[in-house]
Specification:
Length: 222
């Protein structure tokens, strides 16, 4: 009876070692993903923002946050120079009415740098908004830089959220996950950190007829 018992014990040990080796061979699915979004004309004015999701490599609570940058008040003063700005914690309902273009997984250092950007442009930092030099597109451009991406600020695109975010894709080919779908389809994905196969594409970008100009009352800005 001792010999069969030894055989069973040996098999159990081998099976356990196999499980451990497999776990060590497969990298942990960790890291915070940043995705880049735009919101086109409609009841609100055009806007760019980013969404953070995932878990830092170092561990900790799961991350789910979204940030943009906008003026505190939508008044004619925006057209004449700098005004007070604010970090916009973008609402889920607004995100679902927007389009996601691409995403990239951040290192913990890059994630910390992106959070620092939010602080630097927030209430305790330099939060002035300027339609021509410091708007939502400039905010997203800096987030992309801190995410380790190549960024070129084409002056012709810095008031055109969708066109600007689109312009980053070819500059970073192979480094980003191209998504190009709408918000509702994005949140229906089983794994939002992987580019979906056969994702519903965003409709062709129409000719941009106006810049990132205020077109709505503050209540319309999520």
């Amino acid at each position: 009876m001792a010999f069969p018992l030894c055989v069973r014990l040996f098999r159990a040990v081998v099976a356990f070692v196999g499980v451990v080796m497999l776990a060590l061979a497969v990298p942990a699915q960790a890291g915070v993903t940043i995705s880049f979004w735009s919101h086109e004309f409609g009841n609100e004015f055009p806007h760019a923002f980013f969404v953070l999701e995932g878990t830092p490599d170092a561990g900790g609570a799961p991350v789910e946050a979204s940030y943009g940058f906008t003026a505190k008040a939508i008044t004619p003063a925006i057209l004449m120079g700098s005004v007070a700005g604010r970090i916009d914690v973008t609402k889920r309902s607004y995100i679902e009415r927007s389009d996601v273009h691409f995403s990239v997984t951040l290192t913990d250092a890059q994630y910390a740098s992106v959070l620092q950007l939010v602080e630097e442009w927030g209430e305790n930092g330099d939060h002035h908004y300027n339609l021509n030099r410091r708007n939502c597109v400039h905010f997203v451009a800096e987030a992309a830089r801190r995410a380790g991406l190549t960024v070129v600020e084409n002056p012709k695109l810095m008031k055109k959220p969708r066109s600007f975010v689109h312009s980053l894709e070819p500059m970073n080919e192979g480094r980003v996950r191209v998504l190009e779908t709408d918000g509702r389809a994005f949140y229906a994905l089983a794994d939002r950190t992987v580019a979906p196969g056969g994702a519903v594409p965003v409709a062709p970008v129409p000719a941009e007829v106006a810049p990132d100009t205020p077109m709505a009352a503050p209540a319309d800005i999520d």
